[in-house]
């Protein structure tokens, strides 16, 4: 809904959510039945949109449909995906489709259905700053209401006891490729905007896709399906050693459980940092179905003899890049294992280089004196997803919570949709001080760490063993 918020109210709210992506939408949906909780959410976009540039026909989310906004915390909620299907008279078609993973476009539509009905969601509201008011023991959230053209229409300030930051991620462009994006002429687009520019890209003679993750595979497959046989002229490169499948074994998936999240959080900072890099295949690999579809397309094009005009090269990084006479692009490539270099001339580039967490600095600059940081100057986050702040703030019961910005403290599952409902329920339980949503105490068959060891007593100080007399049983 888009009803205007109450500006300048004297009574502080219980909760202000900043950003309305899947994570904060999950929180809003689970907070909705809690009559005692006064919550409001702000989003600068005009409506809910989930990666609109990647809603390619047939592309599916990589988690089962049970990982909707609420089911894994409250399957009786009216905001479940199954209730969305029931409301739209689509339960039986979904049942007979026998699909455990919904399409990306369907997930986007489902989330928008929830967002359009929940009260307290305010779009076209840009949050400019969050400050601590020590005189009244509240946070001050300054925000700007935007008109349909994105211009400032009104200024507001909301007082709140708690803030939840769910501002999501933004497209990442490596430094070597950044000059290409800023210059006009030859099409160079991030995969996040792929569908917006697809028609223009398809007119290019030669297209290069950079990035060996799921979005790169989906873009390459879509381009392949839209290019004529024998004239594909597609090149797909990526830094990883192979176009590797996502780790999708049953026990491997247990890294996306609350059990693993708690285990990861308790590890030393340097161990967490090492694991974050080493576990790339848990979240940056490619769905095996997508890889199979690419191979099927390529194989089909060999039935008449010959090979498709495509090149797929893993293990390659782009050292530098530039434009040639404003009509072509030259990529300077280096093969990591061979230690060889070459140049690739192309007419268009799609940067499937992923997303990175948005910087919190702009919004939280006013809180900087209160924020406690780790050895790498990142905000520390406790096990309940709260920023570690100066005790003068937290002693009042006021807190800042993070959603999808805590991978460095909570591990690979931070951006995973399958943990969104659990994390939102954890936040609400902590905020209300009661078990509003009962959560499971165990979620994985894997035990990720050893039990806390007992203190070892030096041999010289150990008590002598008790001897049992032998009994003659003859």
Tell me what the structure shows.
- This protein has 2 domains: 229 residues, FAD/NAD(P)-binding domain; 147 residues, FAD/NAD(P)-binding domain (3-Layer(bba) Sandwich).
- The protein is globular.
- With 474 residues, it is of the alpha/beta class.
- The protein is built from 14 helices and 18 strands.
- The N and C termini lie far apart (89 Å).
- The strands form 5 sheets. It has a 5-stranded parallel β-sheet, with helices on one face. Strands 9-16-10-11-12 form a 5-stranded parallel β-sheet, covered by helices on one side.
- It is an enzyme of class 1 (oxidoreductase).
- Pfam families: Lys_Orn_oxgnase.
- Its cofactor is FAD.
- Belongs to the lysine N(6)-hydroxylase/L-ornithine N(5)-oxygenase family.
List keywords for this structure.
2 domains; FAD/NAD(P)-binding domain; 5-stranded parallel beta sheet; 14 helices; 26% helix; 474 residues
Q: In CATH, what is the class of the largest domain?
A: Alpha Beta
CATH topology of the largest domain: FAD/NAD(P)-binding domain
Report how far apart the termini are.
89 Å
| Largest sheet entry | 5 strands, parallel
Strand tally is 18
How many helices? The count is 14
Shape summary: globular
- Which regions have little confidence, pLDDT < 50, spanning 5+ residues? 1-8, 464-474
């Amino acid at each position: 809904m888009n009803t205007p918020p109450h500006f300048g109210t004297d009574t502080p709210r219980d909760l202000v959510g900043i950003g309305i992506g899947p994570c904060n939408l999950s929180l809003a949906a689970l907070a909705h039945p809690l009559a005692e909780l006064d919550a409001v959410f702000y989003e600068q976009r005009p409506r809910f949109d989930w990666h609109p540039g990647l809603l390619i026909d047939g592309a599916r989310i990589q988690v089962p449909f049970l990982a909707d906004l609420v089911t894994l915390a409250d399957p009786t909620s009216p905001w479940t995906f199954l209730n969305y299907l029931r409301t739209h008279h689509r339960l039986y078609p979904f049942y007979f489709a026998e699909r455990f993973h919904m399409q990306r476009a369907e997930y986007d539509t489902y989330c928008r259905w929830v967002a359009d009905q929940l009260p307290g969601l305010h779009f076209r509201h840009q949050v400019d700053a969050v400050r601590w008011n020590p005189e009244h023991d509240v946070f001050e959230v300054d925000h700007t209401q935007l008109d349909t053209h994105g211009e400032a229409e009104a200024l507001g300030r909301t007082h709140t006891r708690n803030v939840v930051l769910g501002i999501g991620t933004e497209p990442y462009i490596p430094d070597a490729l950044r000059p290409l994006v800023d210059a006009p002429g030859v099409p160079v687009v991030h995969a996040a905007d792929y569908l917006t520019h697809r028609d223009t890209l398809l007119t290019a003679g030669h297209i290069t896709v950079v990035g060996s993750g799921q979005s790169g595979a989906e873009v390459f497959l879509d381009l392949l399906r839209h290019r004529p046989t024998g004239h594909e002229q597609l090149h797909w490169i990526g830094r990883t050693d192979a176009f590797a499948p996502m780790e999708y074994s049953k026990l491997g998936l247990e890294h996306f459980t609350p059990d693993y999240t708690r285990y990861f959080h308790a590890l030393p900072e340097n161990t967490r940092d090492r694991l974050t890099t080493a576990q790339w295949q848990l979240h940056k690999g490619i769905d095996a179905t997508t890889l199979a579809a690419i191979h099927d397309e390529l194989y089909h094009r060999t039935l008449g003899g010959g090979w498709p005009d495509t090149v797929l090269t893993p293990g390659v990084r782009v050292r530098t890049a530039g434009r040639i006479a404003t009509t072509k692009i030259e990529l300077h490539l280096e093969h990591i294992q061979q230690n060889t270099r070459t140049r690739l001339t192309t007419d268009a580039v799609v940067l499937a280089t992923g997303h990175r967490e948005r910087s919190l600095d702009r919004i939280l600059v006013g809180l900087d004196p209160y924020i406690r940081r780790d050895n790498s100057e990142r905000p520390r986050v406790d096990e309940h997803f709260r920023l570690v702040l100066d005790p003068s703030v937290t002693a009042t019961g006021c807190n800042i919570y993070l959603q999808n910005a805590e991978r460095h403290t909570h591990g690979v599952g931070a951006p995973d949709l399958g943990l969104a409902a659990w994390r939102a329920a954890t936040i609400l339980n902590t905020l209300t001080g009661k078990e509003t949503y009962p959560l499971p105490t165990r979620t994985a068959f894997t035990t990720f760490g050893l039990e806390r060891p007992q203190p070892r007593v030096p041999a010289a100080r150990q008590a002598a063993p008790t001897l049992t007399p032998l009994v003659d049983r003859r």
